[in-house]
Hints:
By secondary structure, the protein is mainly α. The chain has helices at 2-13, 15-34, 44-51, 58-66, 70-73, 82-97, 99-105, 109-140, 151-178, 183-193, 196-206, 211-233, 271-290, 296-303, 308-329, 332-341, 353-386, 399-422, and strands at residues 235-248, 251-264, 344-345. It is built from 18 helices and 3 strands.
Amino acid sequence: MNKFIQNIKNIWKVEELRKRIILTLSLILIYRVGSFVILPGVNYDALAASNAKGDANALETLLSLFSGGGFSNASVMALGIMPYISASIIMQLLGMAVPAVQKMQNEGESGRKRINNYTRILTVVICALQAPSYLTLWVGNKGALPVNVDSLWWIQSTIVMCAGSMFAVWLGERITDKGIGNGISLLITVGILSRFPQAFIAELGFSENNLIKIVLEIVAFMLIVMGTILIVQGVRKIPMNTAKRIAGAKGAEDQGARSYLPIKVNASGVMPIIFAQAIMTIPVMIFASTGADGGNWLQRTLGDIYGVPYNLLLALMIIIFTFFYTAIMINPRKMADDMKRNGGFIPGIRPGEETASYIDTLVSRITFPGSLFLAMIAILPSIAHAAGITSGFEMFFGGTSLLIMVGVVLDTLQQIETYLLNRHMDGLMEGSRLRGRRSANELSI
């Protein structure tokens, strides 16, 4: 424990790291304050009274969780950074089908800047489309719209919400460039963690006479987090040799250098869960907005997020999307070509097509257990709810929120540890090394 306290003091001694942490905390504070600034003209009393009934659907709960309450508060940052994430996903998908986008992806830093510019433009378009829908389907249904709504109010509210979302994106980019950690992911994590104290206090009040239940819930939560960390950090290392030519006084000599090609067990991250949940909520929103009677059965099935049919269908879609998104993230043929170009090869495997086939087979084998893990994580909140955990607190026992929190916290700790180790200081934890910080003999292609 003393060693850990000393490492915390070392963090404050590093001037650059100290400035980055202070800047990050300051920008996060600004983001949190913005999530409580209500849109002009909105009747917040009517909105709060409606929210107190707790009749929000799964998508509304998820969006409110990601925005740190800004969505349910009808704040200027109600849309949060979800439009930017949606735009980023669209650009990734376009990179598979549109040659022009593929060309930009291969242009290095200049191509990345152009893609970022197009992503921001697409974010503004998505915000402009989502803002009126949010005001109509959410604020309007809650009875919180102004009494006399005119065109000017709709236009100014849409502009304000677009500006609030882009300001949140700007804060995230500043954290990434000048602060510590990935800014966009960090803002999402802060929004999720901001709901944790309230949910935990509600659970304590619900089970105030059952201390054993609270202890068991805490132990179960810690075990789930530990298992999530193990899977998120899980890597399959493929042994790889690279030809190394050394020129000396006695002439050139070829030596083989052993390295590793790391393949993550959960290469797709949290995206399959987000895709599956979004697709399953679309039919419910369509039938709810149109008032059609033909979708009553579908609404009951997909609207009950704790029901068995919903969770079975969700798990199946997550498994399918895991393979789909992994295929986007990992290109075995490109990896094999890069290895061959750099003089690398897998022992016992011929370079080229045979190497690509070997990597593809290996990725498929480790993706399947990874997809089962994601499916299990996604349905854990329903299992927790069935075990008697209150609504709101069970969201932290799995699903998108848990994966995002674990991934972002690990990434931030890895960056802090890198700063300490570069200045010949110990890492954050005595005798440990965070898996995300690769050693010298691990290569990423």
